C-alpha cells in the first residue's frame, strides 16, 4: 500500500555516499529529517543527516533501529544486503521493495529481466564455471566481454576477449563470482535514461544524457544527448518498458549503447539516482534527487523539463586540487564536492555542472581549463 510521507517525518537512507548526500539535501529542503545507515562515521550523507547509524548494511540491530526511527526507507546504492533489506520490508515502510536490488546486484538476473521485458540487449550467456564458459562461448562469439555477475563497477571485473585463444584471460574472474559473456558492441555513443515512478504508477524520464567515459569511469554527461528524436523516443520507450516490467517505485538509471544503425542496446541498470543525472540539480525544473524523494514519499511527480543545455564533469581525486585552484576563473561553474576527506586517484570526489548556450564551446572550455588533462 502506498503511503504519503510528510515534512517533519524521517527518511531512512541505506548507504552514506554522495547519492545519499544529494538525496538528503533535496529532502531537507522540504523539511524531512534524514537517518542514514553507513559503516563509516564521516560519510558524505552522514555529514548532512540528522541521525547516523554507523554499522554494516547487514547489521540486524542497526537495521531494526533504522526501521524504528524512519517513516520510510530508501537506499542509495544497490550493493547493500538483499536479505537485510527484505527483512526490513516486513518491519518498516520500504516502498521500493527489495526485489529490484536483488536483480540489479546480479548481471545474470538483470540481463534476464531486461530480455524478458522485450527491449533489445546484446547477446549474452551466463556461466557458473570457466569450463561452462568454454562450452557456451560460441553462442556469443568473438570479440566478447566477460563480466563478473556480481560486484563489478567502473569497468572492474571485466575482460575483453578477442579470440578463443584469449579466453583463458577471463579465468580469474570466476574467483569472484559466476560470469556472463556478452557480445562486444561497437557503439557510437553511450546514453542513459533515468526513469522515475511513484507507487501510483506516474512515470517520468529525465532528459537523456550522453555519457563520455575515460578509463571506464564516467567523465562527462552532455545533455541533451546528441541523438535524433526517433532514437530519443526509442530510448525513452525502452526505459519505461523496463520500469513497468520491474514495477518500479523510485529511480532506475538505464544505460544504453547507441549503434551505427541508430538502434539501441541496453547495457545495464542502476536502481537509484545516477551520476549521469547530477546535471538535473541545476539544469532542470526538478532534480533526480527531488523526484526520487517525491516518488518514495508518495507525492505526485513533476514532469521534468530542461532549462538549458548542460555539461556535467566529474571531479576525481586527482582533479580536486586543479579544480580548487581554478574556481576563481569560472563563475558559471556549479561546483559540488561531496565532503570526502581522502582524495584518492580515480575516487569520485565531486562534480561540476555548467549550463551552456553552446555545447561545443563548453566542451572546449572544459578542455582548456587543463583540470582534466
Ligand atoms: P558496465 O560496467 O557493464 O557498464 O561496463 C563499463 C563500460 O565498459 C561501459 O560503459 C562500456 O564503455 C564498456 N562496455 C561494457 N560492455 C561492453 C560491450 N558489450 N561492448 C563494448 N563495450 C562495453
UniProtKB/TrEMBL annotation:
Domain ATP-grasp: 111-297
Signal sequence annotation: none
Coiled-coil ranges (or none): none
UniProt keyword Ligase present: yes
InterPro entries per UniProt: ATP-grasp, ATP-grasp_carboxylate-amine, ATP_grasp_subdomain_1, PreATP-grasp_dom_sf, PurK, PurK_C, PurT/PurK_preATP-grasp, Rudment_hybrid_motif
Residues annotated as binding ATP: 107, 147, 152-158, 182-185, 190, 213, 267-268
Keyword Nucleotide-binding (UniProt): yes
Cross-referenced Pfam families: ATP-grasp (PF02222), PurK_C (PF17769), RS_preATP-grasp-like (PF22660)
Domain of life: Bacteria
Entry's EC annotation: 6.3.4.18
Record-level Gene Ontology MF annotations: 5-(carboxyamino)imidazole ribonucleotide synthase activity
SUPFAM superfamilies named in the record: Glutathione synthetase ATP-binding domain-like, PreATP-grasp domain, Rudiment single hybrid motif
Keywords: ATP-binding, Ligase, Nucleotide-binding, Purine biosynthesis
UniProt record similarity statement: Belongs to the PurK/PurT family.
Quaternary state and interactors: Homodimer.
Official protein name in the record: N5-carboxyaminoimidazole ribonucleotide synthase
Highest classification ranks of the organism: Bacteria, Bacillati, Bacillota, Bacilli, Bacillales
